[in-house]
Amino acid sequence: MNSTHPLLLVQDLEKSYKGTGKVLDGITFSLNPREVKVIIGSSGGGKSTLLQCINLLSPYDRGKVFLDGVLVTEKNKNVCRQEIGYVFQHFNLFAHLTALDNVTLGPTTAKGVPPGEAGKTARELLEKVGLGDKMFNYPAELSGGQKQRLGIARALGMKPKLILFDEPTSALDPELIGEVLTIMKDLAMEGMTMLIVTHEMSFAQAVATEILFIEKGRIVEQGPPRQFSNPVHERTRQFLHMIEDQ
Ligand SMILES: Nc1ncnc2c1ncn2[C@@H]1O[C@H](COP(=O)(O)OP(=O)(O)OP(=O)(O)O)[C@@H](O)[C@H]1O
Ligand SMILES: [Mg+2]
């Protein structure tokens, strides 16, 4: 395998659901190792669908997704998913498992990591996200910010090549958002490759290598964060004004 391909290549992706028009209408972009791309856009524009299509949680109609140069297909999707972390808006934690077991489950069952080793890694990750004192608590016993930090630790437990974040802070009370963004900033500094749907624009300005504005399943504008201080497209301006006012 050569080293010139991007870590993630999304090529001309198209998707409709039953009874919808095109929810993704020709999305193309790539993500190099250590890059952090932020996706913004109005509700219903296709952001979550795009993330779901990348690891085939949702099938698409046309186009291709390559992970590290390998086409993601029905046959290899489970292997690919092990390399793509996913952090959800509503956490999707395993309610019946402790924080520690939430992090060890994937590595032990899907990757065959010995329990002792998985436990050691999980404890380190929980310390890293500030949950060292919550290892034996269940998700219901955690605050929203703690739940999402656990969601991030769980994704990291699989040692993924990249992590997809779908509005990781939008279900949190305002005072809990910062603690999750801090962890994500740290990951970016460490060189984790990330694709993040978020409307936290100051975070995006600080951390993103590029921002993509998506509407009606198309990329309307993409560029470095500074471009989004003074966008080229009128529609991008309107959107940014709208989210500023919220
Ligand atoms: N399972 C589904 N079946 C049918 N239509 C769907 C399904 N999931 C999403 N859609 C439709 O696809 C479009 C894109 O939805 P998607 O969830 O990707 O948008 P989004 O950009 O993530 O929006 P939000 O900001 O509200 O999360 C919407 O019109 C939505 O109603
Ligand atoms: Mg969404």
Q: Care to describe what's here?
A:
The chain has helices spanning 47-54, 77-83, 99-110, 115-128, 144-157, 174-189, 201-207, 234-244; strands at residues 8-16, 22-31, 36-40, 62-67, 70-71, 84-87, 162-166, 193-197, 210-215, 218-223. The protein has 246 residues and is of the alpha/beta class. It has a single domain, classed as Rossmann fold (3-Layer(aba) Sandwich), CATH 3.40.50. A hairpin with a 2-residue loop joins strand 4 (62-67) and strand 5. The chain is globular. The structure holds adenosine-5'-triphosphate and magnesium ion (MG). Magnesium ion binds at residues 47-48, 166.
In short:
The chain is α/β, with parallel strands linked by helices and 246 residues long. It has one domain (8-94, 148-202, 211-244): Rossmann fold (3-Layer(aba) Sandwich).
